[in-house]
Design a protein that fits this description.
With 350 residues, the protein is mostly helical. The chain contains 14 helices and five strands. The chain has two domains: 133 residues, Orthogonal Bundle (DNA polymerase, domain 1); 187 residues, Orthogonal Bundle (hpI Integrase, Chain A). 53% of the residues lie in helices and 6% in strands.
């Protein structure tokens, strides 16, 4: 009997293959770094770092007189000591906007911070191992991240969104052709996201066996690889039950038999497909807000916090390892609650 293919393990394999391909383009000493951070990072993080370090070396090869004398693959480890703080500052300015393979690429504050984080980790590894003498990446200030307002759906917008998923009247004629086949799946998927706040990657990774109707819970794989059980309410239960009646009559493609949510091709639905279906339905609800699966997660977190006022519960349910992450996201609501508190206590009877 063929072993069950776990979605997250398959993703890790895919990331590993991609990682090996990127490493073929990088100097050999990079392999030592990625082996060194393997136990403390996910395959996805390492792959992102590899892409970022590749961009850095491509820039240096093109713009640094010493680095341009040899191919990137031939860079020795000692080249890191030849790269100055000024080189790194110019690189940070460069990644704001550059062109590659006829594509225009931009990085906002968040993108630049991630690329600098990758470089800091990279340099720090070799500096702490006493394999290089200087650590100019540590001298570069992180870009100031301006706090963005959290985009979320209001209660009436959530109701309108789910109504639209069920009736499909606002869809285009071409979209309506497929709506009858997908509406139960789409209703279950969006109700689950809005009713639990799970991440889109956690959602697409769900297997049939991960749903427990006896306890109304789902078993998910969190960021970092650990498993957790998230509980759902009656609305989510009903939407899942309705979808599963249809799902049980579908014959999935080989290797996708366990997947809870299937695509039109009877494969496990992808993150990109979920992003597209959220965009499709949400664009008819609001044009002012750019709604993504993560915004549905924010919508759930906001509703839960408003109902309970328990930031630690919200952090736990959303799978935030640090409650300060949660506080940062919901600071505006906290301030609103504090303002209300100012008028709750009466010093004198009117």
């Amino acid at each position: 009997m063929e072993a069950k293919k776990n979605y997250h393990d398959e993703q890790n394999k895919l990331n590993t293959v991609r990682m090996r391909n990127v490493l073929e383009e990088l100097p050999p000493f990079c392999k030592q770094y990625f082996r060194g951070i393997e136990n403390n990072t996910s395959s996805r993080t390492r792959l992102a770092y590899a892409y970022d370090i590749r961009v850095f070396f491509e820039y240096m090869h093109k713009n640094n007189s010493f680095c341009s004398k040899m191919e990137i693959r031939d860079f020795p480890l000692s080249i890191l000591d030849r790269i100055t703080r000024e080189d790194l500052e110019e690189y940070m300015e460069y990644i704001s906007y550059y062109q590659k393979d006829d594509r225009e690429i931009t990085n906002d504050e968040k993108g630049k911070s991630r690329k600098l984080s990758a470089l800091r980790s990279f340099y720090n590894y070799f500096y702490q191992a006493e394999l290089i003498e200087k650590n100019p990446a540590a001298l570069i200030h992180m870009p100031k991240l301006h706090q963005k307002e959290i985009v979320r759906l209001d209660a009436d917008e959530v109701a309108i969104l789910l109504d639209q998923v069920e009736d499909g009247t606002s869809l285009t004629k071409s979209q309506q052709k497929y709506h009858e086949k997908t509406k139960l799946r789409d209703t279950a998927l969006l109700t689950l996201l809005l009713g639990t706040g799970i991440r889109v990657s956690e959602c697409v990774g769900l297997d049939l066996e991960d749903v427990d109707f006896k306890n109304n819970g789902i078993k998910i794989r969190r960021k970092g690889g650990y498993e957790a059980v998230v509980y759902f309410g009656d609305e989510v239960e009903q939407a899942l039950q309705d979808y599963l009646q249809q799902r049980n009559h579908v014959i999935p493609l080989s290797g996708h038999e366990h997947a809870l949510f299937l695509s039109m091709q009877n494969r496990r639905i992808t993150v990109r497909a979920v992003e597209n279906l959220v965009k499709k339905y949400a664009s008819n609800v609001t044009t002012l807000k750019k709604i993504t699966p993560h915004k549905l997660r924010s919508t759930y977190g906001t509703s839960l916090y408003k109902e309970t006022g328990d930031i630690y519960l919200v952090a736990d349910v959303l799978g935030h390892k640090d409650v300060n992450t949660t506080k940062k996201h919901y600071a505006a609501i906290e301030d609103e609650r504090r303002r209300k508190a100012a008028n709750i206590v009466k010093l004198r009877e009117p």
